[in-house]
Design a protein that fits this description.
The chain is an all-alpha fold. It contains five helices and no strands.
Length: 143
């Protein structure tokens, strides 16, 4: 394994990364995400729906391996899916997920641009399956 040489070039790269992180933290995408997260955390109805879904999901994961022997597994699956739908249709949850997806798209775009500046052969794993995989920034974001 080749050792990493820490010189003035590496220090400049670290400074640039720190600057990029600072700018990203001040961006409208992060601000919007933080606002939606705070609104979600303070919405009691949304928290009840989230807690209900998580408890049902946990119960389902415990009994699902024994599905052939436990007749209530199918009912529990249906109840869990109904709870997920109710949670996803909640206005605060939907707004939070949209803000989260927007921020992930910005971060994925930054990663692709950085990789492309080094080589077109570098592959970037993005968290969003709908993210454009072409070697250019996402066309919906301004530079």
């Amino acid at each position: 394994m080749i050792g990493l040489i820490y010189d003035e070039h590496m220090a400049a790269v670290e400074d640039s990364i720190d600057h990029l992180v600072e700018k990203l933290a001040q961006s409208k995408y992060v601000t919007h995400y933080q606002q939606k997260l705070a609104a979600l955390q303070h919405d009691l109805q949304a928290q009840v729906l989230i807690d209900k879904f998580h408890s049902l999901q946990q119960r389902l994961s415990q009994v699902e391996p024994y599905g052939a022997y436990r007749p209530e597994v199918m009912t529990l699956k249906q109840t869990t899916l109904a709870a997920k739908r109710a949670m996803d249709l909640n206005q605060q949850v939907a707004a939070y997920k949209l803000a989260q997806r927007e921020l992930e798209t910005v971060i994925d775009t930054i990663a692709v641009v950085m990789a492309n500046s080094v080589s077109k052969d570098i592959k970037v794993a993005t968290q969003n399956p709908f993210f454009e995989t072409k070697r250019r920034p996402h066309n919906k974001l301004e530079r």
